[in-house]
Specification:
With about 250 residues, this protein is mainly alpha-helical. It has 3 domains: about 5-125, no CATH class; about 135-195, no CATH class; about 210-248. Helices cover about 50% and strands about 10% of the residues. It has helices at about 20-50, 65-70, 110, 130-135, 140-145, 150-160, 165, 170-180, 195-220, 225-235, 235-245; strands spanning about 5-10, 80-85, 120, 170, 195. The strands form 2 sheets. It has a 3-stranded parallel beta sheet, with helices on one face. Strands 4-5 form a two-stranded antiparallel ribbon. The longest helix is centred in the first third of the chain and has 35 residues, at about 20-50. The radius of gyration is 30 Å and the shape is elongated.
C-alpha cells in the first residue's frame, strides 16, 4: 500500500504566484515529515537508554553521523505531497502554471540547473463537460454551474442533463455556487439539500416580475390605461394595480 498526501488550495481569484505558493506548501510538508521522523527517532533512542542504560543493543540501529545530524535515517522515506489548486471562477486562468513561466530565462544551460514546479490546476473553463462529469462529489455541480453561469443556454442544458443531481445539491455546495457566481439563488439556509433547478426557476420568475413592474410603472406614468398595461405585461389587472399602489 502506498500513501499520498493531497492538499487543496481553493482560489476565488487568479493568483499569479501560485507556483511559488504551492511549492512552499509542499516543501513545508516535507520539512515537517523530516522533523516528525527525527523526533520519533530521538524518543525511541531515549526510551531504549532508560530501559537498558544504553542507546544501542542487539538488533538496535546505531545511527551514523549523517543520520544523527539530519535526524533522517537512510531507510526513512517521505510520503509524497501533491497540492492541487481549485479555481472557482468562470474566466480562463491566465496566470503562470509553473516556476519557469514566472521567469524570463531561456538559456537551456541555466534551465538544466534548475528544478521546475508545475501548478496542478482544476478550473471550470479549462475542463470539458466529460472531465467535469468524472467528479463524484457535489464538486461536479459546482464546476458545471460556475462554467456556464454566464451562458443561460448551456446552463439550462446542463441542468436538464443532470437534473436529478441538481435537485439534491448539498447546501454547502449551493453556498459556494451563490457566493462565487452571485446568481441570486434563494433557498433555506437550514436545509441539508437544495433544489437548484427550482431555485433558478423562482429566481428567473422574480426577475421577470420585477421587469414587468418597471414597465408597468413607466407605461402608467405615460398615461396608459391599467387594463392595457396589464394585457401588455401579461399579469392580471389586480396585480398591476397592486404594483402601482392603486386600490381596487
Amino acid at each position: 500500500m502506498e500513501y499520498v498526501l493531497y492538499g487543496a488550495e481553493n482560489q476565488a481569484r487568479i493568483h499569479y504566484a501560485m507556483a511559488v505558493k504551492n511549492n512552499l506548501y509542499d516543501a513545508l510538508e516535507y520539512a515537517g515529515q523530516v522533523e516528525e521522523m527525527a523526533k520519533s527517532h530521538r524518543q525511541e533512542m531515549k526510551k531504549r537508554k532508560e530501559q537498558d542504560g544504553t542507546e544501542s543493543g542487539e538488533d538496535k540501529k546505531i545511527p551514523n553521523s549523517g543520520e544523527f545530524l539530519s535526524g533522517f535515517w537512510a531507510e526513512d522515506r517521505l510520503i509524497p505531497s501533491i497540492t492541487v489548486t481549485i479555481f472557482f471562477g468562470s474566466e480562463e486562468w491566465d496566470g503562470p502554471l509553473s516556476l519557469f513561466d514566472m521567469m524570463d530565462v531561456s538559456d537551456p544551460d541555466v534551465l538544466a540547473c534548475m528544478d521546475n514546479y508545475h501548478v496542478r490546476l482544476i478550473a471550470p473553463a479549462r475542463m470539458t463537460d466529460e472531465e467535469i462529469m468524472n467528479f463524484q462529489s457535489s464538486l461536479r455541480e459546482v464546476m458545471f454551474f460556475i462554467k456556464y453561469s454566464k451562458d443561460k443556454k448551456n446552463l439550462d442544458r446542463i441542468l436538464k442533463v443532470n437534473e436529478k443531481r441538481f435537485r439534491e445539491v448539498e447546501r454547502r455546495a449551493a453556498d459556494v455556487i451563490e457566493v462565487i457566481t452571485n446568481s441570486g439563488l434563494k433557498y433555506d439556509k437550514n436545509e441539508e439539500a437544495v433544489n437548484v433547478c427550482q431555485a433558478i426557476q423562482e429566481m428567473r420568475l422574480e426577475s421577470e416580475e420585477k421587469k414587468a413592474q418597471e414597465i408597468a410603472k413607466n407605461l402608467y406614468g405615460m398615461g396608459m390605461e391599467i387594463e392595457k398595461i396589464a394585457q401588455g405585461v401579461g399579469y392580471a389587472v389586480e396585480i398591476v394595480k397592486g404594483w402601482l399602489g392603486i386600490e381596487s
